[in-house]
Amino acid sequence: MQVKTNILNLPTQEFVHPGTRACTGCGLSIAYRVGLKALGKDTILVVPPSCLTVLQGLFPVASTKLPCLNVTFASTAAAATGILATLKTQGKEHITVAAWAGDGGTSDIGLQALSGAAERGDNFIYFCYDNEGYMNTGVQRSGTTPIGAITANTPFKGKLQQKKDVPAIMAAHHLSYVAACSAAYPLDLYDKIKSCMNLPGTKYFHIHIPCPPGWGYDPRYGIKIGRLAVETGYYDLYEIVHGKFRLTAASEKLMEKRKLVPVRDYFRAQSRFRMLTDQKIEEIQRQIDAKWAGYYKKDE
Amino acid sequence: MHIIEDGNTTAALGVKLCRANVIAAYPITPQTPLTERLSEYVESGKMKAEYIPVESEHSALAVCIAASSAGARVFTATSANGLLYMHEQVQWASGARLPIVMCVVNRAVGAPWNVWNDQQDSISQRDTGWMQIYCADHQQIIDTVIKAYWLAEKASIPIMVCYDGYILSHTTMPFDLPDQEKVDEFLPPFQPDYALNPDEPANLNTVTLPDVRIDTKGQLAHGYMEIRCLLQEELRTTLQLASEAEKRFAGIFGRGGNPYLEPYRCDDADYVAVGLGSITYQLRVCVDALRKEGIKVGVMGVRYYRPFPDAVIADALKGKKGIIVFEKALSYGYEGALTSDLKSALYEHLAGTGALPSVQNFIVGIGGREIHTRDLTENFRAATQGRVSREPSWIGLKL
């Protein structure tokens, strides 16, 4: 078991300049900053249009100190493949190629290219930062917007459909590494990136990203909300290494405690769930309990 | 060395001679044999390159865009709906100023489905900021691929090498296969001004504002409009570059001449047929027949379609009585795109000189409709006797 990174031994070198164009309290700022620390200097980034495009700054100013290729919405993973192929012909395979796309750019418009690259086994790391909607364009629903969430195009009833389980889709591609992380647990993200960098083929990271304007909460509560999602057992931190599933960090601890915070606390902390009825919340609570009962059973 | 191959293999041999580093392609008829040959060269070790079998044409060009941004010489090829599916990436490639070479094996676009030849696919990409060159035989295909890399890399502008599906792609023809040494002499390794590189980080294609903006060092950087204007201006300068490429090529390979146009019996002609690609060779047969009847006609193939060599064309057609444009595509709602471009060039350069020819537009071979030389000749003859119609006239139509 490797030594876990803590705030004292986290590298101090920064690859994101302070003062980006991200919103106040943006969860992506945390995940991106820590993620790049783990990836290190020898990295080339690929970014489709998304909140990260905004965070990265407007020409000719950039907030990231790593080379970055901005690409079209649907082409992120294919672009990563193109850079990799070139590095191979140049004998520079020590350079890591990392794609960072939003949930719309991954679960909706970018899924085909991602699936293609994963099936080919192209050796790069794909990060889906999931703020559960098209936040950059003004909070529209995406494939990963959860049931019950009010968005600009589910304005009154909230989204009626389930969140798409993208990590499970990616796991079905027989990847060497799939991880679910959260901006509220950046060190878990850091350790997971470090642990998978030498694994073959495509590595997939799903990162839950609290979003103050999209989710409707005071910006200072971003970490609290992100943690509530995990502590309620609603969003789980895990990794799947060569097909082997394991809960990590706070989710792993929940296995020991065997006690979940009621999911109501998570929903009632955000205005996007205001139309979610008590009855619906109870139904979701039952689903979470059943999911965790499965985890407990596997553990025994 | 003279060999006999089909058009797709000819193009593949050209790409191999140019030592492309990264190839990405998605299968579509009639392009498939071209990419099959390339994957054979790569897998057998005859060609040192990465071949990426992508899951779509959109991704094929995405791979090329990214690989080119990282410093590779790249290649892709497509046809018809594959090219249309790429459209977003086509625009991105030229905006990002990447010297990508793509063969377009011309085919009709859906709906309804049709796998046969016309040129609606590449003509519909006319305004995307790419160079477009049309080929009429296999020698032109292989020579154009080689020249295309030189041109694209000199100008940092992508280029489409277009040739007719089946008529050229699936027919065999003898041609001179250039020597590898001579190709290496003509085409040095690709050296981009900037390639993605952790030692020299840059954020490429980022959001660029409507107006100019100062960078962190106080230098004024371009706004979006300046960047787009430079694409237009530098695309226009490739007209001169094409001449330079032709001279260099002729010096090394001993063939070549006019990079823009391919005239046949035009000098003393009263009426000149104009077209793109293989139809211009078929029209030569019509010209010979009409000449025997005493009608002074010629045919001029337009090889270089974008940027449009307007001055050269106007000069070549100056004083002719009539121009008859035979097109395998059209700008729906008006007329053939080449016809409009020609009229614009003639008006610009010849209006008021008394040397302005009339222009007649024929639409032919849409969706692979058989183009009978007899029909071409009849319509050509009719057009020399007076304008057939104001609207484009469809040859061989059975409505």
Quick take:
The complex is a heterodimer of chains A (300) and B (399). Chain A is an alpha/beta fold and 300 residues long.
Protein topology:
The complex is a heterodimer of chains A (300) and B (399).
Chain A: H1 27-39, E1 43-47, H2 51-55, E2 68-70, H3 76-89, E3 96-102, H4 103-108, H5 111-120, E4 125-130, H6 166-171, E5 177-182, H7 186-196, E6 203-208, H8 212-215, H9 222-231, E7 238-241, E8 244-247, H10 249-257, H11 263-268, H12 278-299
Parallel strand pairs in A: 1-2, 1-3, 3-4, 4-6, 5-6
Antiparallel strand pairs in A: 5-7, 7-8
Helix pairs in contact in A: 1-7, 3-5
Chain B: E1 2-6, H1 7-17, E2 22-25, H2 32-43, E3 50-53, H3 57-69, E4 74-78, H4 80-85, H5 87-95, E5 101-106, H6 120-123, E6 131-134, H7 138-155, E7 159-164, E8 172-176, H8 180-186, E9 203-204, E10 213-214, E11 220-221, H9 224-253, E12 261-264, E13 271-275, H10 279-292, E14 297-302, E15 304-306, H11 310-317, E16 322-327, H12 337-350, E17 358-363, H13 373-384, E18 393-394
Parallel strand pairs in B: 2-3, 2-4, 4-5, 5-7, 6-7, 13-14, 13-16, 16-17, 17-18
Antiparallel strand pairs in B: 1-8, 6-15, 10-11, 12-14
Helix pairs in contact in B: 1-2, 1-7, 3-5, 7-9, 10-13, 11-12
Overview of the structural elements:
The complex is a heterodimer of chains A (300) and B (399). Chain A is an alpha/beta fold. Chain A has one domain (27-299): Thiamin diphosphate (ThDP)-binding fold, Pyr/PP domains (Rossmann fold). Helix content of chain A is 39%, strand content 14%. Chain A is built from twelve helices and eight strands. An eight-stranded mixed beta sheet of chain A has the order 2-1-3-4-6-5-7-8, with helices on both faces. The two termini of chain A are 21 Å apart. With 399 residues, chain B is an alpha/beta fold. Chain B folds into two domains: 2-186, Rossmann fold (3-Layer(aba) Sandwich), CATH 3.40.50.970; 261-394, Rossmann fold (3-Layer(aba) Sandwich). In chain B, β6 (131-134), α7 and β7 (159-164) form a beta-alpha-beta unit. The model of chain B has no long low-confidence stretch (mean pLDDT 97). The interface between A and B is large, with 45 and 48 residues. β2 of chain A pairs parallel with β9 (203-204) of chain B, so a sheet runs across the interface.
